[in-house]
Amino acid sequence: MNMKIRLSALLVAALVMFSCQPKSKFSISKQAWGKADGKNVSLYTLTNPNGMEVKISNFGGTITSIMVPDKNGKFDNVILGMDSLSGYQKGVPYFGALIGRYGNRIAKGKFTLNGQEYTLRTNDGPNHLHGGPKGFDKVVWDATEISGPDSVGLVLTYLSQDMEEGYPGNLTSKVTYVLTKDNSIKIYYQAATDKPTVINLTNHAYFNLTGAKENVLGHELTLFADSITPVDSTLIPTGLIAPVAGTAFDFTKPHTIGERIASVKGGYDHNFKLNRTGEGLMLAVELLEPTSGRLLQAYTTEPGIQFYSGNFLDGKITGKGNVKYEKYFGLCLEAQHFPDSPNKANFPSVVLNPGQKYTQLTVYKFSVKK
Ligand code: BGC
Question: How far apart are CA 163 and CA 167, in angstroms?
């Protein structure tokens, strides 16, 4: 064989070897992350073939980071979070956590079901917020890793005992986080009870698509919702369904968060009633960060989205990368039933009876717009 032929044979062999290299795959790994309630806490790292990486702890079912690319392929973490378990245990406002048994507020922590009044533990002035002082965000869930050819995930289960935080019924909850190849995180919630109860599960991730470089006022939001449920001074819905047309709450066309926020007392912290035409998964939200080009689309089976613009962040918490989380540094898009539904007959029901199965599916899909 002459030199030329040998060289080209080598080149062909190298090309064949390169193209046969297995593409990077889905993976999940687990690391010890400390203890809570005497139980072991772990941190799981899920990756997909595009290099997207999601970290989830079984403490509170908390998503601690989501690494996604910008329009130039540069990866950054796009949610607020802490580096250690102790950071979460010191107290954070529900960063990335699962919320239960009831997302958002129940007025004065009271509701009546089948003629019986229940009193929940209060933790937000006179009201009950996000499941009470020890909600699902502060308990240790049992975790099982799952993986298939097109996804990887984590199944979390938790048994909330009868009367835990004041809620009736032994409630078994199962939340499945799945990372897919189209850069989506699917969150599938299931629950069952042995006594009539109320339920409203969600996730409380604070998104910042700049990669925590600046606040979220420059993010462009589209919310497919023609109305909101206005609130009183303690953030309890009045019961009205108010149209957003002509107000600072009209995000049916994209607007930056900062554009009209000064006219919204306290900032955005409202439940938006989605424009549903039936049941099933619908596109509820689009959030674009123009500088990075990152786009987040949220799909849900729920009737509402709580859009919270991080109004109570005040720089007192230093999170990942030593960044101080100032006001408006992250925003939440919590897919949910409406706040205080147990006390509002005109809102979609949140009652779960024995024999029924509670389900909710929400998908957060990341991509870029160039
Ligand atoms: C609520 C806010 C609350 C925040 C806690 C949001 O879901 O709507 O009022 O302060 O959670 O971080």
Answer: 5
